[in-house]
Amino acid sequence: MRAGAESARSSLDVAVSRARFDNGDRIPNAVERVASAGLTLLDRAAFSGGLRVRYLGEAPLIEDNSARSDATTIFNAQLSYQATPAITLRTEVFNLFDANDNDITYFYMSLLQGEPASGVDDFHIHPVEPRSVRLGIRWRL
Predict the structure, then answer these.
(1) Got the DSSP string for 75-118?
(2) Where is the TonB-dependent receptor-like beta-barrel domain (predicted)?
(3) Reduced to 3 states, what is the DSSP secondary structure of residue 123?
C-alpha cells in the first residue's frame, strides 16, 4: 500500500418521505424509504474490492393506499486486481444473492383475452435482473 493511501471507504445515504397530495391522498409510486450503503477496500496487496446494498422501501400504488409495492433489496460486489501499473482486471457481480424482487411495481386495470370486458385491477411488475457477472480489463497507455 502506498504511504498515506486510504485503505477503506464507506458510504451511507438514507431518505425518508411522506408524499401526499393536497387532499391527503398518497402519491402513487412515491417510495417512502430509500437507503444505499457501501464499503470499499483499497490497495490490499494489489486487490481492491467493494460491496454495495440498495434498498427501496414499500410504496403506495394507488391514492387510497389499498395496494402497495413490496420493498426491494439488492447487493452488488466488485473485485479488482492491479496486475501491472498499466493493467487492471475487474470483476463485478450484480444482484449478488440473486434476489427475486421487483425493480418497479404498478397497479392498474388491464384487459387480457378471456378476462371480463370491464378489465381486472392487478399488479404489473418489472423484476430485477437476475445475478449477472461482468468482467473487464483496463489498460492504461
Answers:
(1) EEEEEEEE-SSSEEEEEEEESTT----EEEEEEEEE--TTS-TT
(2) 18-96
(3) strand
The whole-model pTM stands at 0.85
Identify the three-state secondary structure at position 135: strand
pLDDT tens-digit series, residues 16-34? 999 999 999 999 999 999 9
Dihedral over alpha carbons 77, 1, 45, 75 (to 10 degrees): -10
Nearest alpha-carbon partner for 65 in 30, 22, 33: 30
Phi, psi of 125 (to 5 degrees): -130, 160
* HEC assignment per residue over 19-80: CECCCCCECCCCCCEEEEEEEEEEEECCEEEEEEEEEECCEECCCCCCCEECCEEEEEEEEE
Q: Which three cell numbers stand for residue 135?
A: 468482467
